Amino acid sequence: MRDVYIIGTGEHPWGKFKDRNFVQLGEVAVAQALKDASTDWKDIGAIMSSILIYGGNAGHLSGQYIESMFGETGVPVVNVYNACATGSAAMRMAYNSIAAGETDTTLAIGVDFSPEGFLGAKSDDPRQDRDVIRWRMTGMPNPTYWALECRKRFEKYGDTPEDLADIKVLLSQFGVKNPNARYQKLFTKEGVLNSPMVCDPLRLFEICATSDGAAAVILTADPEKIKAAKNPVKIEATTMGSAIYGDPTIRISAVSAPAKAEAPMLSESYSASQQAYKKSGIGPEDVDVLELPDNSSWHYLQYLETCGFCGEGEAHKMLREGQTQVGGKVVVNPSGGFSSFGEAIGAQAIWQVVECSDQLRGRAGERQVPNCKVAMAQTYGLMGNSGTTIMTI
Amino acid sequence: MQTMDTVEGKEPRLPDLFCWTDDGFRLKSAKCNDCGSYFFPGYHPQHRPGCKRENVEDVLLSPKGKLDTYTIQHYMCPPPFKTDHEIAPYGIGLVEFPEGIRIAGIIMETDLDSLELGMEMEVFDYPLYKDEDGNDVVTWAFRSVK
Predict the structure, then answer these.
(1) Among partner residues B69, B77, B80, which is closest to A148 by beta-carbon distance?
(2) Which of A103, A158, A256, B15 has CA 20 to 30 A from A279's CA?
């Protein structure tokens, strides 16, 4: 297998862009990435593209539409969906295609347009789609699932409402420094604790919004391109995990879970991260910057434990001691996180890689983490989907 | 035990999830006698890896279980969830049944301030709205055992 490097990245700012279409957002991210990589479109040997599930036929064939914007070249174009870990799948396929020698230079692209408000049901047949049951019978939008788990953490480990609010405050301090963030506003603890309760114990400002956005990465094993690149980023591992039997997490879209735990919580994310540690020989103790999926403040705490940055029940201790900030054990979400960006399902995993890459290349502006040598992007998708990418400079 | 998928004046909003019996309202599950797993809905199997998957049978869950965790929803869930009256704030809980499966559902007819993890809950039929024929369209819900 060949070593694979990131030589160019691009990002369209996150927000709501009602008067634009996904190809236009994708064009911005891809054009930036090509320029950054000093790579000609005709050098792209394959395109791995995230599916937009709310984008109809075009959304399911997003790679072809992006390709036609830049000019069709006949290369393999694969469109993939793995819930909120969709971009991880595109990254992994791009990496594997190059490492195996099928292509030299590949584009991983994720664009998404979200519907207004909650991400809702997409079918009406419960026989085919279990998701229909939760929408019709139990009235459970995604944050409900997180609140159920968050309540258990409160009881089991002693996390508090103040911890949840502090997380939002910390993320907003990074978010104001990121010109691509949708929300560049500083929050106070009082402001967060006074925001409307959505699903107790989660408040409005402790749950991420749904956004539109795009991110693109150009990967290569071409020695000349790597040599010519400005600070190429080495991909040490890019893995995916699915859930493990006996996972006690109440998984989004499910209306049941086993009573007895026979696997770790968020076992898909545990699996993806463990695979990445094993493959790279890099452990959580080596990671300088971690971009984790903070869909809610609960995720921030839970993912520190799921990915082994601390022991079970110890995440709030890390938080309170400042171990997740600059100067601590690992800097968590210096991008500002989903808290500042919002979710854009197909784009967010690639966006996390772009943010990690910017930190490693020392071009993260005001939010630059000093001396960042190892970065990790961790994703979480419903129904047992997760990806981990570990990168070094 | 006699079981009925509908009873006079009541219609399930979705089929195959619960039934009425001469011993009260029950959730429908399925059990794999090879790997010991319970499924809900029964038609969505989640077997243990390596299971032979040959001996799956339909079963009804016990009428009572313990509250594993809960949240209080302070807003109405958007469509397709539907009720003919405002129910927010309302509870949503995970109830652990003695068979070894936890089921999610709305919590009604219970003082939300009294909710505590581990408390005993029972399952019952809750009317969401009325259909054109005047029948109650129902889902399953949980309430505390008095």
Answers:
(1) B69
(2) A103
Percentage of chain A surpassing pLDDT 70?
A: 99
Q: Is B21 domain-assigned?
A: yes
CA distance A309 to A290: 10
Domain that holds residue B66: 9-144
- Residue B54: in which H helix or E strand, if any? none
Among A388, A329, A393, residue whose Cα is nearest residue A353? A388
Say whether B139 and A136 touch across the interface (CB within 8 A). Answer: yes
A342 close to A218: Cβ distance less than 8 angstroms: no
Instruction: For residue B138, report the phi and psi dihedrals to the nearest 5 degrees.
Output: -115, 155
Cβ A151–B71 below 8 Å, yes or no?
Answer: yes
- The CATH architecture to which A133-207+236-392 belongs is 3-Layer(aba) Sandwich (3.40)
Cβ atoms of A144 and A200 within 8 Å: the answer is no
One-letter amino acid for residue A118 of the chain: F
Topology of domain A5-117+212-234, CATH: Peroxisomal Thiolase; Chain A, domain 1 (3.40.47)
- Tokens 């992994």, residue located: A92
Cβ contact A250–B101 (<8 Å): no
Domain ranges across chain A: 5-117+212-234, 133-207+236-392
Return all residues near B45 (Cβ < 8 A) that are at least 6 apart. B30, B32, B37, B39, B53, B56
**Would you put residue A288 in left (φ > 0), alpha (ψ -120 to 50) or beta?**
alpha
Q: Does A197 touch chain B (CB under 8 A)?
A: yes
Is residue B135 domain-resident?
yes
Q: Does A148 contact chain B (CB < 8 Å)? A: yes
* Count of domains observed in chain B: 1
Chain B residue with minimum CA distance to A204: B74
In DSSP terms, B105 is beta-bridged to: B93
- What ipTM score was computed for the predicted complex, to two decimals? 0.97
How far is residue A80's CA from residue A346's CA, in Å, rounded to a whole number? 9
Residue B3 within a domain: no
For residue range A129-157, list pLDDT tens digits in order: 999 999 999 999 999 999 999 999 999 99
pLDDT tens-digit map of B69-80: 999 999 999 999
Confirm whether B91 is domain-assigned: yes
